[in-house]
């Protein structure tokens, strides 16, 4: 049965049918499983109006009341995690295990947001001048928006809205049109947890909906996660319209293996980080860098492991990897594989030639060796199960390679040498660094964000950055002297200096 997913505004799905729908696919079956509303300017205007009205009361709710909603929301997401995971897998294609992993990561951010009474605390300096105190307070921005990618339909929205609403804002979420169902479910769960209707709204759609958000005068801030070209567009357009923006972009993450590393641990890490979720993770490792003479041994260990991976419907028991998200994306990734062969890279494992399910958008793990940095399979973000291996002579050669890459999201090094690891972490121009860990995703009390073309703006997602992004600071200078001082005609700054 084909289900319909409409905008969720003011406490439930809107009643009227939208002028346009887009198909939603089940990527493991290659069938249309639903249709999603495509919103534009009118839908955004409606959602913002509802959000603005709801924010007035919500922003005035006590910190304890807001905290309780977050705590109840965490419990409800936990209770409904199986249904959410099935929803993710049937529209995205990742395995159920991966789907549960992303739900857990989202829950961790909501738990962090439930600490809002502490996180919103300001600063206080007593007696900056006689009888004068100065302090800062944090206040919500009003209506804020989040625009999210297809690859984490629960986790990435939960990087944003739990913190935004805990800070007292109302939120308009524009999720990916490729896997939209989970967003409506999250909004419904938040309302069951006590979030007043209208505080969290979901507008579905593509570029039109995004552009209407970027230019709407009553949206104070836009948080974006997606590919680099769209991140740049969002950053430039929203900033030109006076908004605060954080825009996280794409990635090309390297894992550097030094000659002294435990090669089995490195190969395990590479396989899980390169092929997990079919490589459709912004923290996926897509480049293996073999330092010194370990290249052949590492390649052989990778090939052995790749041969054991089960590439099937993500709902099947024992699935290691599911399909890619759409037929178009599959074709794009297959095109990169062809380009790599054409450019002369050694195709060690060809995912196109594997025994795969007949229907659906499948490509098995693919490995290239002896790749040159000039090749498109190295330069571009492929966002599929394609790992490329390069060989360099030294640690400095590896650092130079990573730093010359235009992306700077995540990177890892595997070594037993603490001095080398320390030098690596200091010198790499990348926002998130792993030492002997495959995917260095920060836990929610540290911010998530890359450097260079992986992040436009200066705030990462969640952690203290999230609270700062979704609040503005007010600094108060107050005089409550015990005796009246009479009229003081000096410039105000002079009082503090006296
Ligand atoms: P995408 O950039 O195509 O889409 C992201 C969002 O932008 C979606 O909501 C989409 O509807 C909207 N959008 C798409 N085209 C648009 C246009 N022309 N104008 C305005 N809005 C538009 O990204 P995706 O394919 O959904 O997700 C994969 C990308 O996201 C990868 O590049 C991946 O690295 C990146 N990503 C980055 C992070 C990070 O933390 N840096 C995390 C997850 C995903």
Main beta-sheet strand count, sense and barrel state: 7 strands, mixed
Associated small molecules:
nicotinamide-adenine-dinucleotide
- In CATH, what is the class of the largest domain? Alpha Beta
Q: What is the residue-averaged pLDDT?
A: 96
User: In what order do the strands lie side by side in the largest sheet?
Assistant: 13-14-15-12-11-17-18
Radius of gyration: 25 Å
CATH homology-level superfamily of the largest domain: Aldehyde Dehydrogenase, Chain A, domain 1
| β-strand number | 21
Strand % is 15-25%
By CATH, the topology of the largest domain is Aldehyde Dehydrogenase, Chain A, domain 1
Q: Which second-level CATH architecture of the largest domain applies?
A: 3-Layer(aba) Sandwich
Estimate the global geometry from the Cα principal axes.
globular
Helix percent reads 25-40%
Per DSSP, the total helix count is 17
Assign the structural class, choosing from mainly alpha, mainly beta, alpha/beta, alpha+beta, or little secondary structure: alpha/beta
Low-confidence stretches: none
* First and last CA, distance: 75 Å
How many structural domains in the coordinates? Answer: 2
Can you offer a commentary on this structure?
With 498 residues, this protein is α/β, with parallel strands linked by helices. The protein folds into two domains: 3-249 and 454-475, Aldehyde Dehydrogenase, Chain A, domain 1 (3-Layer(aba) Sandwich), CATH 3.40.605.10; 253-435, Aldehyde Dehydrogenase, Chain A, domain 2 (3-Layer(aba) Sandwich), CATH 3.40.309.10. It is built from 17 helices and 21 strands. Strands 13-14-15-12-11-17-18 form a seven-stranded mixed beta sheet, with helices on both faces. Strands 8-7-6-9-10-20 form a six-stranded mixed beta sheet, with helices on both faces. A three-stranded mixed beta sheet has the order 1-3-2, covered by helices on one side. Strand 9, helix 9 (228-240) and strand 10 form a beta-alpha-beta unit. Helix 3 (81-92) packs across helix 4 (96-113), helix 4 packs parallel to helix 6 (155-166) and helix 10 (263-275) packs across helix 11 (295-306). It starts with a strand and ends with a helix. The model has no long low-confidence stretch (mean pLDDT 96). Bound molecules: nicotinamide-adenine-dinucleotide. Residues 147-152, 156, 174, 176-177, 206-207, 210-211, 225-227, 230, 233, 248-251, 282, 381, 383, 409, 450, 454 line the site of nicotinamide-adenine-dinucleotide.
């Amino acid at each position: 049965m084909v289900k319909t997913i409409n905008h969720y505004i003011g406490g439930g799905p809107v009643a009227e049918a939208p002028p346009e729908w887009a198909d939603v696919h089940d990527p493991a079956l290659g069938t249309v499983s639903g249709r999603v509303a495509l919103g534009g300017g009118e839908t955004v205007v409606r959602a913002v109006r509802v959000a603005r009205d709801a924010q007035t009361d919500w922003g005035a709710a006590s910190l304890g009341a807001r905290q309780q909603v977050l705590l109840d929301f965490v419990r409800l997401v936990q209770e409904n995690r199986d249904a959410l995971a099935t929803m993710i897998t049937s529209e995205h294609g990742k395995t159920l295990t991966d789907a549960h992993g992303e739900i857990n990561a989202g829950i961790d951010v909501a738990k962090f947001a439930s600490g809002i009474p502490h996180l919103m605390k300001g600063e206080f300096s007593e007696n900056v001048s006689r009888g004068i105190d100065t302090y800062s307070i944090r206040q919500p921005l009003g209506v804020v928006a989040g625009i999210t990618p297809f690859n984490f339909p629960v986790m990435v929205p939960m990087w944003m809205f739990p913190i935004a609403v805990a800070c007292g804002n109302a939120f308009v979420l524009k999720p990916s049109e490729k896997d939209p169902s989970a967003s409506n479910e999250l909004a419904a769960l938040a309302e069951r947890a006590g979030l007043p209707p209208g505080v969290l709204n979901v507008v579905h759609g593509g570029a039109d909906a995004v552009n209407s958000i970027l230019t709407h005068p009553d949206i104070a801030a836009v948080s974006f996660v997606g590919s680099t070209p769209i991140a740049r567009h969002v950053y430039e357009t929203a900033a030109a319209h006076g908004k605060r923006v954080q825009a996280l972009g794409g990635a090309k993450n390297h894992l550097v293996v030094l000659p002294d590393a435990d090669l089995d641990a490195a190969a395990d890490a590479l396989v899980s980080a390169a092929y997990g979720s079919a490589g459709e993770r912004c923290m996926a490792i897509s480049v293996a860098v073999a330092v010194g003479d370990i290249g052949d041994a590492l390649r052989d260990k990778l090939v052995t492991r790749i041969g054991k991976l089960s590439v099937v419907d993500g709902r099947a028991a024992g699935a290691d990897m599911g399909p890619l998200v759409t037929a178009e994306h599959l074709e794009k990734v297959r095109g990169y594989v062809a380009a790599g062969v054409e450019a002369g890279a050694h195709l060690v494992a060809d995912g196109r030639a594997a025994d795969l399910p007949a229907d659906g958008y499948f490509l098995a793990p693919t490995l290239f060796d002896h790749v040159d940095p000039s090749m498109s399979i190295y330069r571009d973000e492929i966002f599929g199960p394609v790992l490329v291996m390069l060989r360099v002579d030294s640690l400095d050669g590896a650092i130079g390679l990573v730093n010359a890459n235009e992306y700077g999201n995540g990177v890892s090094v595997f070594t037993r040498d603490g001095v080398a690891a320390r030098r690596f972490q200091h010198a790499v121009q990348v926002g998130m660094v792993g030492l002997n860990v495959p995917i260095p995703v920060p836990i929610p009390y540290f911010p998530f964000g890359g450097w260079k073309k992986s992040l436009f703006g200066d705030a990462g997602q969640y952690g203290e950055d999230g609270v700062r992004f979704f609040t503005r600071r007010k600094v108060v200078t107050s005089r409550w002297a015990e005796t009246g001082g009479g009229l003081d005609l000096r410039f105000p700054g002079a009082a503090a200096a006296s």
